[in-house]
Structure formats: structure tokens, C-alpha cells
Amino acid sequence: MDGTGARNPVMLSRGLRIPKHPQITTGRMRGALREGTYERKECDAVTRVVRPGDRVLELGGGIGYLSTLLAVRKKVGRVVSYEANPALIPYIASLLAANAVTTVEVRNALLTPEGGDPVDFHLRRNFLGSSMDREADPESIVETVKVDRDRLGDVLSEVAPDVLVCDIEGAEATLLPAGDWSGLRCAVIELHPQWIGQCGVEAVFDAMHRAGLTYFPKASEGKVVTFRRGW
């Protein structure tokens, strides 16, 4: 049901139309989507700091939920979203289409300090578990594909983002210190201290401070930290 009584293969979440998918919108994720708690900390943070017309660079697009929310609810000018998992790209497209979003550009690539040749990406039967790590669960791999790598400096020059949204499963500790983020007004970053340790967390904070951004506790919660320019 779509909330109006008509049968439709979508559910509603924070006012967004979420297409149902047999491998994505299931179990715990389905419940969180319906309750409006999916990616709650990130959603709360971006809702507080993002402004209409902003240019947003998103690293780690996931299912496309946050970029769609920014386009629909915050009326941002543009989102460039990087998602390495090729199995998610068709679903993201369906989510954007279901909400008539045309301001989000999804790039199936990795953003790295130096760019380089494409790298192997391993698709698994549960494609939410797909990754570059072959050894994590080699028996579940159904296909290995190549994913492009884009150079961070080139993308920052091209997009000129006002806002960074970042959830890249620990790669933040090496990628963010390699960039010139001085053009940002704010950044929302999910940290992964279980993988990057205290030194990695400090590297992220140092990178934001070098860019002139200050930790903003009112839009931070747990591992989701927000930085902004000025007070």
C-alpha cells in the first residue's frame, strides 16, 4: 500500500516513496524505513545543517536514501553520490525515479587520493554484503567486477561542494586527510573507530580543522560527527 489505500510496490519513509525490493527492503531495514529510523543520526544531522541550493558530495551512497532525502526535503541544488557497489545502482535509480528526483548524480566508482586503474569488487548473493574484500566470505561471491577509481582532487575541483556527507566504512581515515576541504561549509561524517582506531579518528578531525571547520555537537550523535564553518 502507498499510504493512500491504493496498491503500489512502495512504502513511505519520512515522506519518501521507497520501492520494495526482495533483497533490500526486507527484515530490519524494512521496519526501520517504515518507522523513519533508517539512518536516523545522519538524517537528523543533514536536516539541521544542509541548506536549499547546496552542492553536496556524498561518499558512500548506500541505497540512495540520504541523497533522495536531501533532494526532496532540503531542495539541494545538486548531489554527486559515489557508491562502489554496482549491485545497488539500479535500486538507487528506482528510488530517485519514484520520488521524481533529477538533481542527484550517482557514480559507480571509488574516490581515492590518487585515482588509478579499476579495482576488483566482489558481488555476493546478499549483495548488501558485496565488497572489495574477497576473503570476508569467499564462498558467497557470485561475480567479480571492476570498479573505477576517481581522483579526489579532480572531483573536488569539479563539484565544488558546500557539504560533504561521508560513510565509507573506515576509508575516511585515509581519504579525508588527502583532500582540500577548505571550500566546505559543513561536513557530516560517520566514523568507524572499530576499524580506524583513535589515530584514524584524530586524522579525520585534524583534516576538518585544517579546512577551517569546527566540530558541531548539536548535529552530532555517537559515531556521526558534524563539522561546520563558524558559529
From TrEMBL:
NCBIfam families: fkbM_fam. One of its GO terms (molecular function) is methyltransferase activity. The lineage of its organism: Bacteria, Pseudomonadati, Pseudomonadota, Alphaproteobacteria, Rhodobacterales. Keywords: Methyltransferase, Transferase. GO terms for biological process: methylation. It comes from the Bacteria. It comes from Salipiger profundus. CDD domains: AdoMet_MTases. SUPFAM superfamilies: S-adenosyl-L-methionine-dependent methyltransferases (SSF53335). Pfam families: Methyltransf_21. Gene3D superfamilies: Vaccinia Virus protein VP39. This is Methyltransferase, FkbM family. Residues 67-197 form the Methyltransferase FkbM domain.
